């Protein structure tokens, strides 16, 4: 048990309006101040070190760190409308994002009117927006699901039995070989399970946001493959783990559900 160290502390700060690249329009955002605070038995000691201000889109749930200097102020109560929030917190939003909002309007009306370079840039932007949260989640290792955890436990037990039987009864060659083979199989199963668990965890985490932001672009599989390949060469997990076919399937499945 860790009795001292630092812990993440979140404090609600207020609400601002901002452009959300997943929703592709101006949205209300809920802002929390994130700090790392020293603790003793999980009791915070002092104010700690501020990490930043994290804004969550109240529509799609995208979380991004923001620069509070971009806003006139933050309002404390939940906004009644986005227009009211823009006026109070970010009155220049439509001027700052003029070009992007015009581009989004063109995209809404006719996505294939945009040239291939612009389409690739907009597709790439979706992955660039989501990549930091993927890197953050996986920075401390792969999240372990129940299946992978079970495989790891079995591997440890079989390995222990292999070593113990091998040391105590070296003459029982058949039993030692059998346990050796079982150890190798359970190790391979653990590695495969961890790899698929990483992909599954990422897919579950990103699916709603990817589908929402990519749907208006109606991307072709080769466009997604080109962008994922770029991200892969940059050694980013989002490019290494996601497959274009899986994204295409998710988009198709969502559009099927949306049809009456
Ligand atoms: Zn959003």
Number of domains: 2
Helix tally equals 9
Shape estimate: flat
Query: Care to count the β-strands?
Result: 5
Bound ligands: zinc ion
The amount of helix comes to 55-70%
Distance N terminus to C terminus? 53 Å
How would you spell out the order of helices and strands?
A: EEEEEHHHHHHHHH
Amount of beta strand = 15-25%
Low-confidence stretches: none
Judged by helices, strands and strand pairing, the structural class is alpha+beta
Mind telling me the C-alpha Rg? Answer: 24 Å
The average pLDDT is: 86
Q: Largest beta sheet, briefly?
A: 5 strands, antiparallel
Transmembrane segments: 149-168, 174-195
Keywords: Membrane, Transmembrane, Transmembrane helix
């Amino acid at each position: 048990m860790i009795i001292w160290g630092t812990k993440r502390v979140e404090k609600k700060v207020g609400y601002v309006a901002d452009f959300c690249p997943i929703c592709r329009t101006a949205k209300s955002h809920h802002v929390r101040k994130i700090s790392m605070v020293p603790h003793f038995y999980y009791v915070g000691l002092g104010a700690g070190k501020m990490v930043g201000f994290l804004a969550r889109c109240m529509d799609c749930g995208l979380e991004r760190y923001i620069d509070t200097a971009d806003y006139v102020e933050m309002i404390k109560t939940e906004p009644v409308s986005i227009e009211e929030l823009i006026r109070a917190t970010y009155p220049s939003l439509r001027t700052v994002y003029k070009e992007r909002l015009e581009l989004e309007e063109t995209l809404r009306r006719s996505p294939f009117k945009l040239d291939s370079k612009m389409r690739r840039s907009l597709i790439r932007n979706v992955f660039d927006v989501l990549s930091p949260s993927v890197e953050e989640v996986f920075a401390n290792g792969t999240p372990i699901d129940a299946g992978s955890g079970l495989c790891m436990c079995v591997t440890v037990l079989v390995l222990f039995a292999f070593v113990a039987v091998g040391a105590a009864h070296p003459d029982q060659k058949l039993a030692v070989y059998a346990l050796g083979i079982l150890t190798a199989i359970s190790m391979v199963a653990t590695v495969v399970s961890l790899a698929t668990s990483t992909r599954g965890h990422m897919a579950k985490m990103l699916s709603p946001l990817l589908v929402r932001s990519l749907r208006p672009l109606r991307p072709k599989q080769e466009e997604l493959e080109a962008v994922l390949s770029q991200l892969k060469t940059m050694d980013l997990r989002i490019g290494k783990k996601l497959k274009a076919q899986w994204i295409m399937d998710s988009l198709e499945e969502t559009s099927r559900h949306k049809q009456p």
